[in-house]
Amino acid sequence: MTKRNPVSFLREEYQDIVAKGFDWKPPTLQGPAGPRARYNGKEVLVLCANNYLNLANHPKLKQASIDATEKYGAGSGSVRPIAGDMEIHLECERRVARFKHMEAALLYMSGFAANAGLLGPLAGGEVDVVLTDELNHGSIIDGLRLSKAERIIYKHNDLADLDRALQEAERKSAKRIMVVTDGVFSMDGDIAPLPGIVKAAEEHGALVYVDDAHGEGVLGQGGRGCVDHFGLTGRVQVEIGTFSKALGVVGGYAAGSKDLRSFALNKSRSWLLSAAPAPAVAGASIAAIELLEKEPQHVQRLWENTRYWKQQLQQLGFDTGRSETPIVPVMLGESHVAKKFSERLFDHGVFALPIVFPMVARDKARIRTIMNAGLTRQDLDQALEGFAAVGRELKVIR
């Protein structure tokens, strides 16, 4: 009798992914992340990184990382509930809370870990109801799968449909009602209509939970994020953030009331059962927040580049979708066109990845570009030349 190979499905499923053209083949970054970087031996302009403010290789962050390592060591040694809090982690949480104008914050190993570990406990009962935008990030989807609460999906950024969902939740006599949304949606770069969401939630006594991963460092005064951008500070109960995008480091956090921190500290298993971030990460994160507070020109340059880039793409004839932020999709429609477009851009010295089905709908493939404060006008013009040449070659524009 021939024994069955218990892991044969791994290759079979991967081969199926390859056959459908859905496999990821990330190029190798040979050096620090920046607006210009070396990938696979070629120097290119980088238009697909989340390093919005060009802080990932900033000397102040690097030095803060070195200083923290020398003082506290390479690692935390254990999970915080067991081995205790390092003072640098507590200091980082205080800086986050002050930056977000919240009472308290709690560090996580990543923004994904924050969503995965906090959404379940916040809506953990079978008589709870969560209302979630249909285009929310995968980490929100996975976090909600760990909850016993009933989920009601409402149409993307549709306040009328959100009101319908809130009324449905009330008819179910839900003990807790929670509205969950991204602040900025990562595929299209559009912003959640938070004023309307908060108003509707308040009318129905619902908690509001915002994942601001792509909003902090980008929107709001000094880059404080979507909630600050709309003047809603104090009216959103939970803000989830990350250090790994605009702030240039890695790790995540939840910010809110002192009660929220105490609740998460005792009930969020992705925090309870994960080692604390390395001291270097906490030190660099503190430095990033300080830099944002003292040097707002980074955010200003980001938006100057965004306005110019979007305007020039549109003048060339490209469709930039519904972008309202430095996430600027170049809509191409067919997946194979987007993939070919990306390949030819790389030949022109521009690195920008295609976003294709199943990450987006079959007819919504695009090149997702993301602006960076470190890109010069010369860089942008060079990239525009590449987009124009490839667009004409592939008959996307005239």
Describe this structure in words.
There is one protein chain. The protein has 398 residues and is an alpha/beta fold. It folds into 2 domains: 20-49 and 296-393, Aspartate Aminotransferase, domain 1 (Alpha-Beta Complex), CATH 3.90.1150.10; 59-294, Type I PLP-dependent aspartate aminotransferase-like (Major domain) (Aspartate Aminotransferase, domain 2, 3-Layer(aba) Sandwich). Helix content is 43%, strand content 16%. The protein is built from 15 helices and 13 strands. Strands 3-9-8-7-6-4-5 form a 7-stranded mixed β-sheet, with helices on both faces. A 3-stranded mixed β-sheet has the order 1-2-11. Helix 7 packs parallel to helix 8 (194-203).
